[in-house]
Amino acid sequence: MDLPLLRDFLYRIIGHNTKYQKNFDNNNNTLHFSSISVQENNNINIKNSLKILMVSTEYPPMYGGVGRYTYNLTRALRKLGHTVYVVCSDDGKEGNFFGLSSSFNKDNSGLLLEIVNKVNPDIVHIQFEHGLYGLKLRSINPRKTCTNIDSFYDICKAPIVTTFHSAYTFKQWMNIISPLDLKSNSNNNNNLKNQVKHFSKYILQYWKFIINYKSFHDLNNEKLVKSKKGIVFSDYMKNRIIEKKRKGSNGFANNKSDVSDNNSNNDNNNNIVIYHGAEPSLSLFPNIKEEARAKFGIYFDNKDNKTTRTKRIALAMGFKTSTKGWDILSEIDVPENWLIIVNSSKNHFNTENYKPKKIIKKNYTGIIDLQRDYLSDTDLSLLFYASDVVLLPYKVSSGSGVMFDALAHGLPFIATDLEFFKEYARKGLGLTVKRDPKEFKKALIDLENNYEYYYNSVNQFKLSLNWKNIADHHNNVYNSILVDTKSLKSILHSSTIVTTNTTNTTTTTNATVLPMNKIKNSPSKSFNNSFSLSNPSK
Q1: Do 293 and 299 form a contact (C-beta atoms < 8 A)?
Q2: How many helices (H) and strands (E) does the chain have?
Q3: Left if phi > 0, otherwise alpha if psi is -120 to 50, otherwise beta: which for 120?
Q4: Is 486 helix (H, G, I), strand (E, B) or coil?
Q5: For labelling, which of 112, 253, 414, 433 has a CA lying 20 to 30 Å from the CA of 456?
């Protein structure tokens, strides 16, 4: 049994008194990533029902991985008896508050402060993906790189929990920039002029990314410092977020030993990770694979309109962006016993002008493009059940909801050898290879030869992705914060100085409090119109 599953098992047996928690000292500040248990404290009663404000610009029916994750987490927390209010954009019709925007010019901080003052939540939980909060990269002074939610972390008095969705190596960061297609205007009379224009934009964007790499990570660091707890989906993500502080004067991790490597078996290293939850929308039933394949019409070739039912299916699906790396799919010499099935959709927030290379070649039957766009949860489940492995030839990834969804349906993965995927490959859940068509072909053959091993590993692991388990872990994170907060009240000696007692460490945290006249507030009418008491706990 791998360590995360063992810890989950022990937690269910032992209960709330297990101390899986690591503190990272930053001079006089104690910074916390999430733990999966509550600190033992017999003198303080833990609340059974909490009032939680969940913050995510993206939320259903708006399409998007962060929104879908937030929706499922919210449902699971409500089933535990918590009252969860969701604040999202105007397109998130299923939320309770509206008005958040991914535009840099929108004052999300003022809106959120007004909502917090109205609701008075026990916890504010922010799903932090830079692009969802108006990330502004500066071309001259990267120290001014910011989002439209930064000041909220300074002025919010309610405890904040932050889930981090993005952190990259420098190479991946630079790969986010879409390649410039200078040939796209070859038939235009102003071809040279347009090429110069596009090239200039590309150079500016390239420059911005080079000088803002550290600033991008600093935004994560700052959110972590100002949050009571931080949540990540992998050790890779945790190490990316804190890496910039390892050797700096701020000393986030004063010694290399304070931050274990990704392949460490140290419990204190692993306990900060709460997996991305995932569950099938449909229950497994006999012959579901055959029925699912028939549903999507994937039993055919050019000969008799029916392929052999013993063929395995490798699925590539998700948003249609250049970072998905689907350009190599058409170059894979698909093994005889395999089919590659593709389905893609347009990202709601993605603004890149990406025109993917045609995946299917003429008279080529190794790949089928379903062209079904964004799928409902039911159809998504069917498509996973129809498949045998998920293909992830990504150029960039700090986390993958598609991978977690696939694992929840019992599918191993084949992915590019990025650190995030390598971490889960070490658990026996899939293979990682160089982003090369020949390597992906070889991986399909290797996985076929050892399919039972990967299948069994995935089916053991997927139990830890159950949303009930994920909600329990979040519940423990929230309650551990409230335990700390209640124990602090007796020693609180000013509005700006807080002394924190933990099991082994006593620290002092300086909190910035801004005068109310410095806060940009959203119009009251806008706030009142956005507030809704409908289904905060359903």
Answers
A1: yes
A2: 16, 15
A3: left
A4: helix
A5: 433
Ramachandran area for residue 409 (φ above 0: left; ψ -120 to 50: alpha; else beta): alpha
CA quadruple 306, 312, 316, 318: dihedral sign: positive
pLDDT of amino acid 370: 82
Q: What is the mean pLDDT of residues 213-239?
A: 91
Contact assessment for residue 123 and residue 165, using Cβ atoms and an 8 Å cutoff: no
- Cα 536 to chain centroid, rounded: 23
Angle at 118 between CA 112 and CA 122, to 5 degrees: 80
Q: What percent of the chain has pLDDT over 90?
A: 41
Residue 41 pLDDT grade (very low, low, confident, very high; cuts 50, 70, 90): very low
| CB 304, CB 381: distance < 8 Å | no
CA 2 to mean position of chain CA atoms: 22
pLDDT for the residue numbered 417: 94
Q: Give the CA-trace dihedral at 442, 448, 453, 455, to 10 degrees.
A: 110
Our measurement of the distance from residue 328's CA atom to the centroid of its chain's CA atoms, rounded to an integer in Å, reads 25
**Cβ atoms within 10 Å of 324's Cβ, excluding its own:** 23
Dist. CA 417–CA 394, nearest whole Å? 9
Please give the mean pLDDT across all residues of the chain: 74
- Cα separation of 169 and 422, whole Å? 14
Average pLDDT over every residue of 349-369: 55
Q: Is the predicted pLDDT of residue 531 greater than 80, yes or no?
A: no
Per residue in 179-215, is it b (16+ CB within 10 Å) or e — as a string? eeeeeebeeeeeeeeebeebeeebeebeebbeebbeb
Of residues 359 and 384, more confidently modeled: 384
Of the pLDDT bands very low, low, confident and very high (cuts 50, 70, 90), residue 273 is confident
Q: Residue length, the chain?
A: 538
**In sequence order, what are the residues at sequence separation of 6 or more whose Cβ sits closer than 8 angstroms to the Cβ of residue 468?**
76, 79
Please indicate whether residue 444 or residue 25 has the higher confidence score (pLDDT). Answer: 444
- Asked if 61 contacts 94 with a C-beta cutoff of 8 angstroms, the reply is yes
Q: Among 168-177, 252-261, 451-460, which range has the highest average pLDDT?
A: 451-460
In whole angstroms, what is the distance from residue 188 CA to residue 192 CA? 9
The reported pLDDT for the residue numbered 47 is 60
Element (H, E) at 13: helix 3-14
Nearest Cα to 341, choosing from 295, 387, 408?
Answer: 387
Could you tell me which residues come within 8 angstroms of residue 246 by beta carbon, excluding any fewer than 6 positions away?
252, 253, 256, 259
* Phi, psi of 316, deg, nearest 5: -120, 120
- Cβ proximity of 84 and 54 under 8 Å: yes
pLDDT at 415: 96
